[in-house]
Amino acid sequence: MTNQSLPAIKFDKVSRHFGEVRAVDEADLEIRDGEFFSMLGPSGSGKTTCLRMIAGFDRPTSGHIFLYGQDVSNLPPYERDVNTVFQDYALFPHMTVAENIAYGLMVKNIAKPERVKRVDEMLELVQLSGFGGRKPSQLSGGQRQRVALARALVNHPKVLLLDEPLGALDLKLRQQMQVELKAIQKRVGITFIFVTHDQEEALTMSDRIALFNKGKIEQIGAPSEIYEHPASIFVANFVGTSNLVSGEVAKRITGADITFSVRPEKIHLGSVAENPPSDSYTTDGIVRDVVYLGLYTRYQVELDGGGDLVVVEQNLKTTSMDVLKIKDQRVRLYWNKEHISKMGA
Amino acid sequence: MPSKAYSGQNASWGLKIAAFAGLLFLHMPILIIFLYTLTPDETTYTFPLPGITFKWFGITLQRVDFWRAVTLSLQVAAIATVAALILGTLAAAAVYRSKFFGREAVSFLLVLPIALPGIVTGIALRTAIGSFDIDFSFWTIIIGHATFCVVVVYNNVLARFRRMQGSLIEASMDLGANSFQTFRYVVFPNIATALLAGGMLAFALSFDEVIVTTFTAGQQTTLPIWIFSQLSRPRDRPVTNVAAMFVMLITFLPIFFAQRISASSSDTDGETK
Amino acid sequence: MFQRISTYLYLRPKLVLWLLLGPPMLYMFVVYLGSLFNLLIYSFYSLEPFSGTIVREFTLSTFARTLEPANLEIFTRTTLMAAAVTAVDALIAFPLAYYIARFASPRLKTWLIIGVTMPLWSSYLVRVYAWKLILAKEGILSWFINLLGLQGVLDWILSNESIGGSSLALSPLGMFIVFAYIWLPYMIIPIQTALERVPHSLVEASSDLGAKPLQTFGTVILPLAFPGVVAGSIFTFSLTLGDFIIPLSLGNSKLFVGQAVYSYQGTAGDIPLAAAMTMGPVVIMIVYLLIARRLGAFDAL
Question: Which of A144, A280, A325, C171 falls between 20 and 30 A from A108, CA-CA?
Answer without folding.
Answer: A144
